[in-house]
Amino acid sequence: MTGAPPLLQMALRVEQDIFVLRQRGREVAAAVGLEHQDQVRIATALSEVARDLLLTAGGADVAFSVGFDVVAGRPVLYADLAPVRPLPDGSYQPQSGAVARLVDMLGVVAAEGDTVVRMSRRVPANAPALTPERLAELRAELGSTAPGTALDELAAQNEQLIAALDEVRSQRDELEVLNSELQETNRGVMALYNQLTEELEETNRGVVALYAELDEKSAQLRAASESKSRFLANVSHELRAPVTAIIGLSRLLGDSASDPLTAEQGRQVELIRSSAGDLLGLVNELLDLAKAESGRIEPDWAEVDLRALYGQLRGTLRALATRPEVELVVEEPPLPATVRSDEVLLAQVLRNLLHNGLKFTERGEVRLRAERRDDRWSLSVSDTGVGIPPALHERIFEEFYQVPGATRVGGTGLGLPYARRLVMLLGGTLELSSEPGRGSTFTVTLPTGGA
Ligand code: ADP
Questions:
Q1: What distance in angstroms lies between residue 413's CA and the mean position of ligand 1's atoms?
Q2: CA of 387, closest atom in ligand 1
Q3: Which SUPFAM superfamilies does the record match to this protein (predicted)?
Q4: Does the structure show a pLDDT above 50 at 1?
Q5: I want to staple 440 with a disulfide (CB 3.0 to 4.6 A). Which of 57, 76, 319, 434 is the partner?
Q6: If 0-12 CB within 10 Å is exposed, 13-18 middle and 19+ buried, where does residue 228 land?
């Protein structure tokens, strides 16, 4: 129900009234704020329905009013056509099915006890507000304007038709413009796609080339490393015989059975012998390292008894612990003290670490421990010696590297790289934690079940 009094009322009795109704309908629609298109729609629907009612019910009383929709409270324009004679079957079906689509709603409703044919169209949100004052104003305005003649309405209808045609044409033009824009865009997208594909292929080619180069470089690196190991192995092997001969000969020279030497000669021969001894040590270590690097050392896997191994190290290294201020402590490994490993290689590693500990510790202790955690053994050698600055923790594992300064006490700088190689062969790791002045701890971690 619309509530407020109608904006405009008129009677539909003869054919000419159809034109008037059409014209007035458009005026009302314009007055409440419907857009041009909607004005034409409602005017057209009105004239169609009016024609039907004139035929079936002898005409109608028409009332235009504004109501507000229940949900959004938005204004809606209603046109109620109360038939002069009751509608056949009390219902109404427009002759043309398309009429219903011109408005939001078209159908028969009961209004104030009567059956009316009602159509409605929502007023757009941007239309001026339809306050009761504004509605009263509109009512007055619409009442004062006189309806035009049928000819006027025909002219108006023609104008509308031309405008509608123009609109259709302009829409078609717009569509053409849109189409050509779309084609343009498509061409652009295709060009972009082609460019991207090309760039991708280019990048792929680059990556492939890079990989090939990388493969080649690694092969070169491998070859270089192999030839270095071979060279070291050959040189040290070749050097061993003459160096051993020098040691033997110098020992012979100093022997009491040989011709006596002057004191100075004796001192020099002893110097030769000890230098040759150092050289032999270096040659042997080089040979070991070269062998480990070239993969020519095959661990002899067996169940190793750590307690026996530790006992043996305790015995052999005691001879090296010559400083009374330094105690060598070998702890008893916890049971079950077994690990699958190569006993000789493992002993070599631990001996090397203990030897270093004793070499670089002036007072305190050097301690060998064994700890088992889950399926790993941690075998650690810790000392209370000079310690190593953190920045050099990795460098001391490089061949020939020795920490510079007053702490140098002979040696070759090959012991730790060799030890690490061996531990890797045994499937473990060799790590260091140390700080200058606070001693060092080297830890060999091994899987209990071997590599
Ligand atoms: P070398 O002992 O024959 O010099 P290594 O490879 O065994 O060769 O050790 C390299 C260097 O690492 C040593 O020269 C020494 O400077 C440092 N280093 C090794 N072990 C210790 C340690 N326990 N305490 C302090 N410095 C150490």
A1: 7
A2: 25
A3: ATPase domain of HSP90 chaperone/DNA topoisomerase II/histidine kinase, Homodimeric domain of signal transducing histidine kinase
A4: no
A5: 434
A6: middle
Strands (E), 317-439: 326-330, 338-341, 364-373, 376-383, 429-434
Ligand 1 atom showing the smallest separation from residue 381 Cα? 23
Class in CATH terms, 8-148: alpha beta
* Residues whose CB is less than 8 angstroms from the CB of residue 149 and which lie 6 or more positions away in sequence, other chains included: 19
Give the Å distance between the CA of 272 and the centre of ligand 1: 26
Task: Provide the residue ranges of all domains of the chain, joining segments of one domain with +.
Answer: 8-148, 302-447
Q: What is the pLDDT of residue 145?
A: 65
Mutate to test the pocket of ligand 1, among 282, 363, 396 (most ligand atoms within 8 A of CB): 396
Taking the complete model, does pTM exceed 0.85, yes or no? no
Residue of 326, 416, 435 to mutate, ligand 1, most atoms within 8 A of C-beta:
416
- Ligand 1 closest atom vs CA 413: 8
pLDDT at 406: 53
Alpha carbon distances (Å) from 235 to 188, 225, 275, 292 = 69, 15, 18, 16
Run of H or E residues at 10: strand 8-12
81 within 8 A of 62, measured Cβ to Cβ: yes
8-148 and 302-447 share one fold:
yes
Candidates 360, 366, 386, 440: which one to mutate for ligand 1, based on the most atoms within 8 Å of Cβ? 360
Q: How far is the CA of 380 from the centre of ligand 1 (A)?
A: 16
Mean pLDDT of the chain: 88
For residue 407, pLDDT beyond 80 = no
Amino acid identity at 372: R
H or E element, residue 281: helix 263-293
Instruction: Give me ligand 1 centre to Cα 443, in Å.
Output: 14
Most confident of 100-114, 200-214, 224-238, 384-398: 384-398
347 Cα–ligand 1 center, Å: 18
Match 């054919």 to its residue by tokens: 15
Q: How far is CA 30 from CA 123, 215, 331, 424, in A?
A: 10, 82, 106, 94
Could you tell me the fold of the domain covering 302-447?
Heat Shock Protein 90 (3.30.565)
In whole angstroms, give the CA distance from residue 143 to residue 164. 29
Q: How far is the CA of 161 from the centre of ligand 1 (A)?
A: 104
